[in-house]
Amino acid sequence: MTSLVVLEAVARRLSFTKAAAELNVTQAAVSRQIHALEQELGFALFRRLHRRVELTERGRTLAGVLSQSFTLIDQTLASVRAQSEEDELAIGATVAFTQLWLLPRISEFRRLHPGTKIRLITQDAPIDLERDMVDVAIRFGDGVWSDGRSMLLCEDDLFPVCSPDYAAGRRLPETVRDLLDHALLDYEAANPGWIGWKEWLTAFSAGRPARPMLRLSYYTDVVHAALAGHGIALGWNCLIEDLLQQGRLRRVTDVHLHTRGAYFVIVPNRESLKPNVQAFADWVSARLRGTTTDLEVEL
C-alpha cells in the first residue's frame, strides 16, 4: 500500500524529488519503493530520462486508477466525518464576548437544543469563517466582512463603572472631567472599532487623566481589575449587564457614549448551513435584544 501511495505521488508530480518532498521522505526512499513495486509487478512503471521521468503505458493506467481511488476515499472520509460532526456547532467570538456574555448564558441554548455539540473558538485575532471552519461567529464592527454575511444584533453604550469597594470612602466623579483624577483602567483594543478611554474622553472634550492609567492586554482583565477595586473601567453595557444587575459593578455617572459599531451574527458564504446555525442565530439575537420571545433572523 505504501508503494502505491508513492506511485500516485510520483505519477502526479512526474518527479521523484517533488514526490519525496510531498510525502516528507527522502528521494532515495521514493526510488526504493518504486523499484520494489516494479519488481513485484514485473514491468516498468516509469521511463527514466535525462532529469525527468515519464510514465509507461501500463504505469499510466495504474496511476490513473490509483488517483481516482484515492480521490473517492478522500471524499468518502470527508462525508463520514461531516456526518459525525453534523450536530457540532463551531462558534467563533472574542475573548471578552465569550467570557463575559456567552459562557454565562450558553447553558440556556444547550437546554433548548440538547442534541447540539458546541465548540467555542475564542480569540481576539480575526477569525476567518472559511479557513477556520467556523459555523457562526459574533463580531463587533460595521457589518461588512468578505468571508460571510451578517445580520445586526444590537448596538452598545459605554459608561464608567467601578466596584462597590472602590466607591466606598471615595468621592466619585460628578462630571466627566472629574474622572481625570481617578485611576482609569484601560486595555489594548484588538478591534479598531472598540473604544478605549482616550476615545471616550475625547468625545466629551475632557482632556488627559491626571493619574496614570493601568493598561491591560484584554478587556476581560480590565473587568476583573475593576471588580478587584483597582479603579474605574469603561463598561460595555451588553458585556457587563449581569455584573451590574448583581451589584458587583456600578455606574459612576449617568454619562454614556453610544457606539458607532454594533454586534453582528455572521455566517460563512456557503450555500447550505447546518440547522443549528439558524437556531443559534435566533437565540443569540433574542438574548442580545433583551427578549425571550421567538425571534427569527434571516441568514
How would you describe what is shown here?
- The protein has about 300 residues and is an alpha/beta fold.
- About 40% of the residues lie in helices and about 20% in strands.
- The chain has 11 helices and 13 strands.
- The protein has helices spanning about 1-15, 15-25, 25-40, 55-85, 95-100, 105-110, 165, 195-205, 220-225, 235-245, 275-290; strands spanning about 45-50, 50-55, 90-95, 115-120, 135-140, 150-155, 155-160, 185, 215, 230-235, 250, 255-260, 260-270.
- The strands form 3 sheets. Strands 7, 8, 9, 10, 11 and 12 form a 6-stranded mixed beta sheet that branches.
- Strand 8 (about 185), helix 8 (about 195-205) and strand 9 form a beta-alpha-beta unit.
- The radius of gyration is 29 Å and the shape is elongated.
- The model is unreliable at about 290-299 (pLDDT under 50).
Summarize the structure.
With 299 residues, this protein is an alpha/beta fold.
